[in-house]
Amino acid sequence: MDKAYDHNKYEEHIYKMWEESGAFRPDEKSTKKPFTIIMPPPNANDDLHIGHARFVAIEDILIRYHRMKGEAALWLPGADHAGIETQYVFEKKLKEQGESRFDFDRDTLYKMIWDYVQENKTRMENQLRRLGASCDWDRNKFTLDPDIVKVILKTFKKLDDDNLLYRDEKLVNYCTKCGTAYSDLEVDRVERIDPLYYMKYGPFVLATTRPETKFGDTAVAVHPRDKRYKKFVGREIEVEGLIGKFKVKVIADESVDMEFGTGVVKITPSHDFNDYEIGKKHHLEMKQVIDYEGKLNEKCGKYQGLKVIEARNTIVEDLKAAGMMVKIDENYQHVIGLCYRCKTVIEPLPYQQWFIKVKDLAAKAKTAVEKGQTKFAAKKFEKIYNHWLDNLRDWNISRQIVWGVLIPAWYCRDCNKWTITAGEIPEKCKYCGSKNIERDKDTFDTWFSSGQWPFATLQTTHSGDFEKFYPTSVMETAYDILPFWVMRMMMLGIYATGKVPFENILIHGLVRDKNGQKISKSKGNVINPLEMTEKYGADAVRVSLVWGALIENDISLSEDNIRGQKFFANKIWNAARFVVSMDGDLGSRTDKFSNKTDKIAKSITEKMNNFELSYAIEELYEKFWHWYCDECIEKAKKRELSKADLVHGLITFLKLLHPFMPFVTEAVWQELRKEQKTGMLSEMLITSKWPEV
């Protein structure tokens, strides 16, 4: 054996050996309950980042552990087309080249994004291999695979058949930069300080943060118990505006806060969600004055064509000049919505969209957890999950983008109805028989596609996979997509299959830098997992990503952490070198030593079963370095411990350490097999048996 462990000499060769041997496939002969993880499919639009590396480390540790326990362990890999996120990334690249998405027709743009994604997808899969991901590549899936799309469309048709789907013009969260609507979950809510403008409004003075929407006002509202304005309720008032006089009705509504401003609020149903609900209750007109590019439209007179912020500033100055601005509070703190992708301020706009009725779906998803059919490893996330389900509004699943699965719905102009299919193209309208039909150009929300990932994958891989591996054992993912993805997988999985999609939910925290700061390019603290792997080895990167904190908590990471684990890998190698170099007979094992290794194996097994991976590796580190190396090897040098004990201890530790540090342990295993001084070892450590406890 070499004097030091060189990861570059071993890792690629070892991974190729594993993959070609079929070691990643589930053991078909196993009579134990299968253990299944469906990989959260990384977005196929860029390289893997440190967050991806953490989920790879956690899931691969679990799958290797259960594989060694003799279970039919399946880790199914895949990639996500990632809808708006991928289109957004691609548009940024077009912009760098002086181009725009508007320079291309729909089919050309789709093909360009497809080629870009396929290139990234291949590179990303090789990066997963580089990190040691022992997933079954024979079952690799992509969210735009034709068979996956077929499942998605079937679910859409089932929702329609079950009267859980409808199309309506409702107020939606619209990003005027991305050019698409979003669901409530894809809006970042942030606190911000903005001016609060007090302006004259007929007989009133009222306060608003958005004077530019006044051209869309269809009422003013007061609280029914507000004595100041009781005489106005039910009356129509005339208001002097910047483009002429107009009339609005005064209504009373319990939702009005008497303490806000002057207690009088303008109601703009087309541009505010609260106003929209008030408008529905009082049958108010919807008057849209901002278009889908974020500009004021023809209803705004001389302000037509101005972007929202520009219009606001201009209107404020004109209100001042006209003597209509009473005062301005410059320090009004409120919450606004931002596009979760580009951080543009969301514009509430009326739009025809497809919606899923979520009340019953959400109730069943909540009940499944309450009954223990699905369990959260960390209970704190169960509360968050329930909160989102309790407050969920109907799900807008339409997206006005090119990249994604086209919604299989055809509009008939003759009867004004929609024909919905499971993907097949209808020859005519199913209601009136007209052939004057046109397909919807919208695509599905990517979370509608990926929300079906557990059952869609297993229904489209090998024959019998769904029956054998569903429900899956563990869904492991980051806490920031708990409402986006986990909750929706629960809703759609139960709806489509009648069963929960997974038995356990294991949420991991984020990776932060050594100072606990969020990792981002703007902060200059990005840690590239592939660069660290090249420098220190995959084992060092993997261990550093589970070290020092329970899975559900954020971890702090630095290059020093990774370098430290490289030293540990070398310690394992050097210990094995000593064992190989020992002279003399094996001798006999002692009960005291065996009892100690059995006790360690039992402790590690308990921690693995409880997902306490950080505790497990930290105990292994301490016991291997300070007990096995510092005590046992030193005793062996003095002939106070038999070679048989030392060999048994090394083999036990290699097995226990393998899920965490698969490459160095497998490299040592193969070196031991070459020496043939250690008794019969299985062909590969990856498929050897976990120590019995």
Task: Please characterize this protein's 3D structure.
The chain has 693 residues and is an alpha/beta fold. Among the domains are: 181-347, Isoleucyl-tRNA Synthetase, domain 2; 532-687, Isoleucyl-tRNA Synthetase, Domain 1, CATH 1.10.730.10. Helices cover 40% and strands 19% of the residues. The protein contains 20 helices and 25 strands. The radius of gyration is 31 Å and the shape is elongated.
Record the SSE blueprint.
Elements: H1 7-21, E1 35-38, H2 50-68, E2 73-76, E3 78-79, H3 83-96, H4 106-130, E4 141-142, H5 146-161, E5 165-175, E6 180-182, E7 187-201, E8 204-208, E9 219-222, E10 236-241, E11 244-252, E12 265-267, H6 273-282, H7 308-321, E13 325-339, E14 347-356, H8 359-370, E15 375-376, H9 380-390, E16 395-396, E17 398-399, E18 409-412, E19 417-420, E20 437-439, E21 443-444, H10 446-450, H11 453-458, H12 465-469, E22 472-478, H13 482-497, E23 502-508, E24 511-512, H14 529-536, H15 538-544, E25 555-556, H16 559-581, H17 591-609, H18 613-637, H19 643-657, H20 662-675
Parallel strand pairs: 1-2, 3-4, 9-11, 15-23, 22-23, 24-25
Antiparallel strand pairs: 5-6, 5-14, 7-8, 7-13, 9-12, 10-11, 14-16, 17-21, 18-19, 18-20
Class from helix and strand fractions: alpha/beta
Average of per-residue pLDDT values: 95
Largest sheet: 4 strands, antiparallel
Determine the number of helices (DSSP H or I, runs of at least 4 residues): 20
